[in-house]
Amino acid sequence: MSQGVPFPPAVYVTGTDTGIGKTFSSCALLHALRLQGLRAVGMKPVASGCEMTPEGLRNEDAVALRAASHPMPAYADLNPFALPEPLAPELAAADAGVTLSLPPIRAAFERLRAQADTVVVEGVGGWLAPLSADLDQSHLVHALQLPVVLVVGLRLGCLNHARLSAQAIAAAGATCIGWIANEVDPQMARIDDNVAMLRARLPMPYWGRLPYSPGADPVEMARHLQVPMQQF
């Protein structure tokens, strides 16, 4: 383990909605942590929309997280539940005849923890998107004792979505330790003013803003983040 660089042993990345750049932000975060000398690996416990490859089912987001990880973990540990259909996990799992449960996720997570200083665990959709009929993301966060990082997709409506998400995370008894602004709409008006309003209203620290840059190198994006290296 790296010494003298305190950071939580794992964090859970959630977002204000689906399609707001959780994977993009998680990959940038992984590289930001690696730049600080940490061995950082990603995890996507549940991924729908997987494609069959010669190696088995693979998800684009999970593959990106694996590429941003060091050391590079086994895919089956990074993505223990790979579901073919691009649907909400509850529906995709039912179609695949799979029962989503915590024990396989916990076992994979522990294997990742054993090989890294920190694990960046990416959730599904927004915070309140369920994993199954009886499993919410908050259950996973509590089971693995994960602090939360919120990705705010910068587009019209983000003030409401960000504040509601922050309130829902707190109401679930989880701790949000930071938020990342991610530009998803290059035409958004008054983007600087919106970020300023969010910084004034969200109760957790601001970790930086990722510019709109489709296909950008996550190593370069990492330089836009200011991840606090302090005792949490």
Automatic annotation (TrEMBL):
Pfam families: AAA_26. SUPFAM superfamilies: P-loop containing nucleoside triphosphate hydrolases. GO terms for molecular function: dethiobiotin synthase activity. The active site is at K44. Its main location: cytoplasm. ATP binds at residues 19-24, 61, 122-125, 182-183, 211-213. Catalyzes a mechanistically unusual reaction, the ATP-dependent insertion of CO2 between the N7 and N8 nitrogen atoms of 7,8-diaminopelargonic acid (DAPA, also called 7,8-diammoniononanoate) to form a ureido ring. Its cofactor is Mg(2+). This is ATP-dependent dethiobiotin synthetase BioD. InterPro entries: DTB_synth_BioD, P-loop_NTPase. It is found in: Cytoplasm. Its EC number is 6.3.3.3. NCBIfam families: bioD. Mg(2+) binds at T23, D61, E122. Substrate binds at S48.
